[in-house]
Design a protein that fits this description.
The protein is of the alpha+beta class. It is 26% helix and 41% strand. It has a domain of 100 residues: Aminopeptidase, CATH 3.40.630.30. It is found in: Cytoplasm.
Length: 151
Amino acid sequence: MHNTEAYSVIHLSIDDVDDMVSIENQAHTHPWTKAVIADCFGPLYRTIGIKQQGQLLGFAIVQQIIDEATLLDICVAPAYQGQGFGLLLIRHLLSEAKQAEAVVMMLEVRESNTSAKGLYEKVGFRESGRRKNYYQTSNGNEDAILMDKPL
């Protein structure tokens, strides 16, 4: 990480939703709505973020049901991408899921999202399946790649 300013990884609250939506809209081609993000607070969810001088730089949302954790969303503001913040978020989530007795973390990613796939592979996720033509795109459909990592 070449950005040396102090940052912290914290648990987010419903009060952070507007900032999360802003980052989501900047960073994703198919962003989640405010209502969907707001629904990701509660006993089954772990929602963390990276803040620097009070500013949210990125966030991630995991749902855990018994011993299975699913990474639902990970998002870093474009101005802060490529600085290791996504890696920091995912490592933090993997550690928390393991502490919460999860045995696996799962996720799905668009086939075309090579940067996300690279991040996931870097921390040990492996492709476990596909959902054919799962995502609609402007020029057709693309597969969802299912990935998992034993904890």
